[in-house]
Design brief:
Number of strands: 2
Helix content: 40-55%
Shape: globular
Distance between the termini: 61 Å
Structural class: mainly alpha
Largest sheet: 2 strands, antiparallel
Number of helices: 8
Strand order of the largest sheet: 1-2
């Protein structure tokens, strides 16, 4: 049934009346299901369920945060006076949350950006919180792919966080930490092997 929806088809070149055929096959326009299938952890079945539950028109969700809030995968803080604690995300659409949970679990086992995001968060926050964070990341990606029919998913890579580290700031912070513990630190550059 999804294949019969005109908005679910690959974008059409208005000049020729047929699908755009670029020279690079990786940039060829894809249907909505095929674009969602490119996301790490999301398969054809998950793409079908996401389309069935969310729809194709993202005008009802002005931002990805609106979609995450509607799905109940956004973080929640409960505050009473000066005390703050995390709260449960809520029930939401149980069909969509089930599929997002399966996709997040599958993505967590991969060597991709989403897998590395899970591994970074699970060390500090625990397994369930890390899975919900990956679910939210997948949902944000879905929103961007559905909002722009020409957008394609490109994985940022498992080294995304490591490549963004400011080495000077990291060195300075580690030196301050060692000095706070009472150590005297002298920095010497390491000779690079030729």
């Amino acid at each position: 049934m999804i294949a019969e929806i005109p908005a679910a088809q690959a974008p059409v070149d208005p000049g020729s009346g047929s699908g755009v055929q670029p020279s690079d096959p990786s940039s060829a326009p894809l249907s909505v299901v095929a674009r969602l299938d490119e996301i790490t952890g999301v398969g054809l079945h998950a793409a079908h369920v996401i389309i069935a539950e969310v729809g194709l028109d993202m005008a009802q969700f002005p931002t990805p945060a609106h979609l995450a809030s509607w799905t109940k995968v956004s973080p929640r803080t409960i505050q009473s006076g000066p005390k703050r604690r995390s709260g449960k995300t809520g029930k939401g659409n149980h069909y969509l949350k089930r599929v997002l949970g399966e996709a997040a679990t599958a993505a967590a086992k991969t060597d991709t950006f989403l897998g590395e995001r899970y591994r970074r968060l699970v060390r500090r926050r625990g397994k369930l919180t890390a899975l919900v964070a990956v679910e939210r990341s997948i949902l944000v990606i879905v929103w961007h792919l559905l909002a722009d029919p020409t957008a394609r998913y490109h994985d940022l890579g498992a080294d995304f966080y490591a490549s963004r580290i400011n080495k000077d700031r990291k060195t300075r912070n580690l030196v301050y930490q060692l000095q706070a513990l009472g150590h005297h630190v002298t920095l010497q550059p390491i000779a690079m092997a030729a």
